[in-house]
Amino acid sequence: KYSTKIVNDAMKRFHSENPYKDYISKEQLRDEVDISQDWLSYVVESMANDVVKMKRGYALKDHSVSLSDSDLQLTVKLEELLIKAAYNLPKVDSLFSDDPKKALSLLHLLKNNGKVIEIKQGLWIHINLIDKLKHALSEYFSSSREMKVSDFKKITLSSRRSAIPLLEYCDDQSLTERQDDIRVKGDDLG
């Protein structure tokens, strides 16, 4: 009973301090309650009526992410700003300087909903632009076997600061494959 109360209180506190997060990670909950992983698993299992077990963590069943009207407007604004920024990957503070911490939380919410991608720590892009990029790369590789960074910058109309992380993302997703200083068509480009 005592362990159940500690876990329940820790989860309530987490949800109240992080209203935009769906769940608390297993590691964070274990650190919060300071009990062994095995005992924590047992306690959480015993709380099955109150706790939702997720892939990487837990949530109280009565918790749901709900946005205020102003937060909803901010998520729409963030999406619009990302689409407008195109392939010049903006950082959070340049997207919304009034409250970068809130903007970051909302970006992570959008990421969990599959609307944006964090290309590299702090660099964001809208998912629609990734689809356009795949199409542009397919078109490019239909007439060229290899691509230089300068070619990619022309395709995306981006600066080197954005082009390099975006190219690395393309490599990671097998859209392109790096061979020394050039890129060739990746296996997953289609």
Describe the structure.
The mean pLDDT is 90. It is elongated and about 65 Å long. 23% of the residues are buried. It has 190 residues and is of the alpha+beta class. Helix content is 56%, strand content 15%. β7 (176-179) and β8 (182-185) form a beta hairpin. The longest helix has 17 residues, at 69-85. The strands form three sheets. Strands 1-3-2 form a three-stranded antiparallel sheet. It contains nine helices and eight strands. It has two domains: 2-60, Arc Repressor Mutant, subunit A, CATH 1.10.10; 73-190, Orthogonal Bundle (Arc Repressor Mutant, subunit A).
List the helices and strands and how they pair.
Layout: H1 2-17, E1 24-25, H2 26-33, H3 37-46, E2 51-53, E3 57-60, H4 69-85, H5 92-95, H6 100-112, E4 116-120, E5 123-126, H7 127-143, E6 146-147, H8 149-156, H9 160-172, E7 176-179, E8 182-185
Antiparallel strand pairs: 1-3, 2-3, 4-5, 6-8, 7-8
Helix pairs in contact: 4-6, 8-9
Which labels suit this protein?
190 residues, alpha+beta, Arc Repressor Mutant, subunit A, 2 domains, three-stranded antiparallel β-sheet, 9 helices, 8 strands, 56% helix, elongated
